[in-house]
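New to this. Please check this record:
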Amino acid sequence: MLTTTQIRSLKPAARPYKVADAKGLYLLVQPSGSLLWRFRFRKFGIEKKLSFGAFPDVSLQDARKARDEARNQLEEGIDPVEEKRQRKLEAELAAKTTFKLVAEEYIQKIEREGKAPATIKKARWFLDLLDHISKRPIASITPHELLDVLKRVERRGHHETALRLRAFAGRVFRYGFATLRTERNPADILRGALIVPQVKHHAAILEPAKVGTLLRAIDGYSGRPETVFALRLAPHVFLRPGELRQAKWEEVDFAEKVWRVPAERMKMKQPHAVPLSKQSLYLLQELRSLARQSEFLFPALHTTRRPLSDNTLNVALRRLGYGHDEMTSHGFRAMASTLLNESGLWHPDAIERALAHGEHNKVRAAYHRGAHWAERVRMAQWWSDYLDRLRIGGKVVRGKFRKQA
């Protein structure tokens, strides 16, 4: 049997040679001077060799321990060479199936499926927030580890972000499960583990007289033309602030008196048509005469290549004296929804379609997609006329509530 002193005294030769230890373990002495541990054994009558590394990185004691483990495997019917190869493959696979790599693959998938650029950008932002687990093999991530990351976000007061982050992680794990990279979804186990914040409704003015005061204040606003026209148009078209702010001229059909918003710009990812009242058409035509050679209706201040920033309209409302708890740019939709429903003149489904609210019943959604258009056209004109009467302080005559079908 070898000793460490004997090993250190070994000299290289012109050709590789072997120095035996015991029970199949030996050193292969290379011409370069490298001393490599090898274990020789037979399996099904075939001689095989197993490498344990180089001396002195692997000591004599460690080499003998590795040999004994290999001999135990042989006694159990396990081929140590195949076992080592399998462990290496598993390690390589784990390196290729980190959470980050699976998440990147998932993001590429939904991007090819046509998800909006904003959705892709948010997904990458969520992935950055999961940096603490991103380099781990996805199959080895435990619920405790994921919860720790989510709680870090929650402790900073970002409750809604933590909830959405758990949902994103869950989608990545489900994709990993579907592509055979993991057998579990830790995010599912964590349902109910995070604080659910109270829903904050967008502040809105809902009293007709106060709506008139707001509209008169908007008429007197002296900001940039793009901001003025966005504020004046917002009450008429029922669009969400982002859908209005990012509008492009190619979407507006003056001849057909309709504004067609593509699916990728809509919250519900369904194309949406807005019937344009005479007042809306007038505002759009006036705005077009002031256009700054931009594809956007409301280009930003310093560049025509981008639309107004997302907080521009809210800032304008603050300058008009309306606090964030009184009125927001999103509040124009709540205003329309409340007053149209209170009028009793219009079918609730027509109002919902005008607001582009999602329909949870897919069959009903398909049925109603083209429904109520004629009523929506009449409603758009009635609503704009109604706003005009409120703005000039005229008397508003309310319709009687009709029976629901």
In short: The chain has three domains: 4-80, 99-189, 208-392. The first strand starts at residue 17 and ends at 20. DSSP finds 18 helices and seven strands in the chain. The chain has a mean pLDDT of 87.
